[in-house]
Request: fold
Amino acid sequence: MKRVFFPHTMIMPVLAEALQAALGPMTLYHPLPEAVDAQTAKLAEAQQIELAFPCPEDGGRLVAAIASFRSWAAAHGGRDLAGLMGRGAEPPFFGADATSRIVAEIKSGHRAPTAETTTERLHRSRLLLMLAQELDARRSELTADWRSLEAQERRMREELKGEDKAVTGGIGAVAPSAAPAPLHMLTARIGAWAQLALQSEDWGGTSPAALFLTDSAEVLDYVTELSAADPLLSRHPVSAASERLRAWLADPQGSPPMTATPPPATPALHLTLVRLPGMDTPGWLRRLAGLSSTDIPGPDRHATAEGVFVGSVALA
Reply:
């Protein structure tokens, strides 16, 4: 069974390690080889994840568009970014001639929306994923800094043990939540990821059974609202010793097995899993991408008997 981590283009090393140990390496679809961050590249080199580039072409245009956006953002100091992004297909920086388009639009006023071609839609989706990755990287750095401060605080508390001075409060009281932060522009991000994933050769011909995992409960909720879902597991502890679950992933017949042996005192992962019955992967991805219903194949076109499996994971 193909195992895919979504809708992010990067993953925390501790989560990648836990998933690799429990379920095997996850595949991450990425918009551009040149945009892979150092941490993700290191995980791929260690074979803890598999990087895939469904559409590696036209990298120069993407890089130029990112540079134009950064120039625009620097000039505007971040003002009205939400309004600009809300224009969907119309942000003026989403093209190779971004600067000239911005000038032309200012002179002529807002232009009427035009229908996107498939190539333009894919280009916009890849660009959005690259911008989102920068936000992910900043959040990852912030989380790492907080964890470092918490570790330093624990060491200081250990050193103060036995002294008369009581230690109260602490950085933990103001530290950000360990749970994944809500995704900004949820539907846009998932749709952009689905546009990219649709280009993968993994889904050609007879679509194989697939498992899509996220570290966001919000993403899983959104997915299950789009399609009827059969619940299979709810926050089930998964450890590196879950051989029966890995065997089921290789041949998903019936319901997934519960852990054969008692899990460790602090299991590495909690897994919530649902099945989308009668659904094939290309059709599901088209639905996530927001394509019209006429573009979504019927359930018997390529659908496997098992359907599509989607889940969320949380570090214990």
